[in-house]
Write a structure and sequence with these properties.
The complex is a heterodimer of chains A (about 280) and B (about 230).
Chain A (H helix, E strand, L loop, with lengths): L12 H4 L5 H7 L7 E8 L7 H14 L4 E5 L7 H5 L7 H5 L5 H4 E3 L5 E3 L13 H14 L5 E5 L6 H8 L1 E8 L3 H18 L3 E9 L4 H16 L9 E9 L2 H8 L4 H4 L4 H11 L4
Parallel strand pairs in A: 1-5, 1-6, 2-4, 2-5, 6-7, 7-8
Antiparallel strand pairs in A: 3-4
Chain B lengths: L5 H10 L12 H16 L9 H18 L3 E8 L2 H8 L1 H17 L6 E4 L4 E7 L3 H16 L3 E3 L3 E3 L3 E7 L8 H17 L5 E3 L9 H8 L9
Parallel strand pairs in B: 6-7
Antiparallel strand pairs in B: 1-3, 1-6, 2-3, 4-5
Helix pairs in contact in B: 4-5
Classes of the chains: A alpha/beta (about 280), B alpha+beta (about 230).
């Protein structure tokens, strides 16, 4: 991917990095790190369930409502948000970490009206979450978060220390799953670990690739049932899964991904696009 | 300008057994020694000689910071003597003090020199174990618990008082936003569990367990309308 360093759309700095609100900025300064409530970590357990696709299109839907939205490629080392958005910038998170460029240089406007901060292929060396990487990431998040109304973390798949750490910086978690048994199992494992290690008691769920209406609700209920039986008895406050929405299987999704376009840009009237718009309305803000 | 409470300071040090200070009184060396001795005094618990709550809080904050930088594991244990009020009421406060001192000694003897043992409340202790991995936590805490259980304390007139303690613990908040308060809260929650489940127990916060058992899987897929089975 580094062979195509020219951005498809040249970055125009003005909409990419808005000015921080005075109120929000003061919340970022000093003291112990607090997760920002308006940061939502999008995670999945299993890969290939459409996590990045969902994050990017939710961001576009939110941007349409007038919100300043940033998607941060938190999948350090194995990023593919760039592929989904067809953006191959010269300056990435890697350059911010190494001090070669400022944060403002690395935040780009994405198609769909939101901003992105891409990790870049140089991030492979950060795939181990050392104390140094954690400090850099935390400082970066604290700097960038107050400037946006909503920030989405596109985290990696799995339950690695990198994923757990990036999720811990977010105020809310959105788990993307499909009705596939393997996806359900991994989503459940993720929910369990987040409940036990991070004290998460509210976890949002988006069920992708449903084959009939109401299947998302069924998946949510099934997961909740297992959580109630095996996770909640040990907790003072039970974990509750909130269904953010379900996105139907739609050939338009595949087509948009193949064309490396956002579904909401390329085919906004399709069932999957409308489902994502509906889910965005219910996003925790 | 308020008067320097030098006399008071020297008396406090003498009371704590620190009578000799190096150097000529008033010299730089002497003042240095005096400050060091006062710092030492204000970090120690008078009854047990362990670190006091103040020193513990400082050490805990340092450990949170150290863990975040190094990524090393660390364990925080909180320990509470079971039914301490009953010991006090039955045998008197002097016996209670004796029990606290005995527990303090048992803790120091069953832990490594690098571990920080503190008395943080009446009958409550806290222990910071740097570089203690998840595989060892249970064994260390259990060793401490058994050590206390196996040492009846002889109080006045040689009456043996059985002593037990409940222990709660949590590993350093790795990969999680970390504050000393949050860490202590997690360990306290486990101490509460140990108390609630019958005392004289060790309860450590479960380490991240992402294993999904076959029972969990069965329930997960039970009655679930599989999309492929239509």
């Amino acid at each position: 991917m580094s062979l195509a360093p020219t951005p498809e759309r040249p970055p125009t700095p003005s909409p990419a990095i808005p000015k921080a609100d005075a109120k929000a900025a003061s919340a970022a300064g000093g003291g112990a790190p607090q997760p920002f409530r308006h940061i939502v970590a999008v995670t999945s357990g299993k890969g290939g369930v459409g996590k990045t696709f969902v994050a990017a299109n939710l961001a576009a839907a939110l941007a349409r409502t007038g919100k300043r939205v940033l998607v941060l490629d938190a999948d350090l080392g194995l990023a593919n948000l760039d592929v989904v958005l067809n953006l191959y910038p010269k300056i990435t998170l890697h350059d911010v970490f190494t001090g070669r460029h400022t944060l403002a240089d690395a935040i780009l406007p994405a198609p769909g009206g939101f901003s992105v901060l891409l990790a870049g292929s140089g991030m492979v060396e950060y795939s181990r979450m050392t104390g140094e990487v954690r400090e850099k990431l935390q400082a970066l998040v604290a700097e960038v978060a107050p400037r946006f109304d909503q920030v989405l973390f596109d985290t990696g798949a799995g339950i690695s220390d990198v994923v757990l750490y990036t999720v811990s910086l977010a105020g809310e978690v959105l788990v993307v799953a499909t009705p596939e048994p393997t996806s359900l199992t991994d989503a459940y494992a993720t929910i369990k670990v987040l409940a036990n290690t991070q004290g998460r008691r509210r976890i949002h769920l988006l069920v992708n690739q449903v084959r009939r209406q109401g299947e998302g609700r069924g998946v949510r209920n099934q997961l909740q049932q297992v959580v109630d039986r095996y996770v909640n008895p040990a907790l003072d406050v039970p974990v509750r899964l909130e269904l953010l929405g379900e996105v139907p299987v739609d050939t338009a999704v595949r087509e948009a991904v193949q064309r490396r376009q956002l579904l909401l840009e390329a085919m906004p009237g399709t069932a999957a696009a409308l489902a994502l718009v509906n889910a965005a309305v219910k996003m925790p803000a | 300008m308020p008067e320097l409470q030098l006399e008071q300071a020297l008396q406090l040090l003498a009371h704590a057994g620190r009578t000799s200070l190096a150097g000529e009184p008033g010299s730089g060396l002497w003042v240095q020694g005096l400050i060091d001795a006062l710092v030492e005094l204000s970090s120690r618990d008078a009854l047990t000689g362990l670190a006091n709550r103040r020193a513990f809080e400082l050490a805990l904050a340092r450990e949170v910071d150290r863990v975040a930088r190094s990524g090393e594991p660390a364990l925080l244990l909180v320990l509470d003597i079971d039914h301490f009020k009953r010991i006090n009421d039955t045998h008197g406060h002097a016996a209670g003090d004796e029990v606290i001192r005995a527990v303090a000694l048992a803790l120091q003897e069953s832990l490594r020199p690098m571990d920080l043992v503190a008395r943080v409340g009446g009958e409550e202790f806290a222990i910071i174990l740097p570089n203690c991995g998840a595989a060892f936590g249970e064994a260390v805490a259990e060793r401490v618990r058994r050590r206390i259980e196996s040492m009846p304390v002889l109080v006045s007139r040689g009456v043996p008082v059985p002593v037990t303690a409940s222990i709660g613990g949590a590993f350093a908040p790795q990969w999680v936003r970390s504050t000393p308060g949050l860490w202590l809260e997690r360990a306290d929650l486990q101490l509460y569990r140990a108390k609630a489940q019958g005392r004289n127990l060790v309860r450590l916060e479960p380490t991240p367990n992402s294993v999904v058992t076959s029972d969990e899987k069965r329930l997960l897929f039970d009655t679930f309308p599989m999309t492929d089975h239509e």
